[in-house]
Design a protein that fits this description.
single chain; three-stranded antiparallel beta sheet; 2 helices
Length: 62
């Protein structure tokens, strides 16, 4: 599976995030490669309307 980063990324996604939009209550499961995973976590932390519900990395899936 490829990374869900907003710009095309052909790297394999290794991490999974469940993100909730606090404005409309919508929840999305997203998958990211290692570098974009860290960037997405930073975006969520800075956002006023996104909340991290769950994250899994390969180490946690073992």
């Amino acid at each position: 599976m490829h990374c869900d980063w907003w710009q095309p990324c052909v790297r394999d996604a290794t991490a999974q995030l469940v993100v909730q939009d606090t404005d409309d209550g919508a929840q999305q499961m997203q998958y990211y490669c290692p570098s974009h995973f860290q960037m997405r976590l930073a975006e969520i932390q800075e956002s006023d309307h996104l909340e991290l519900q769950e994250s899994r990395t390969p180490e946690q899936q073992l």
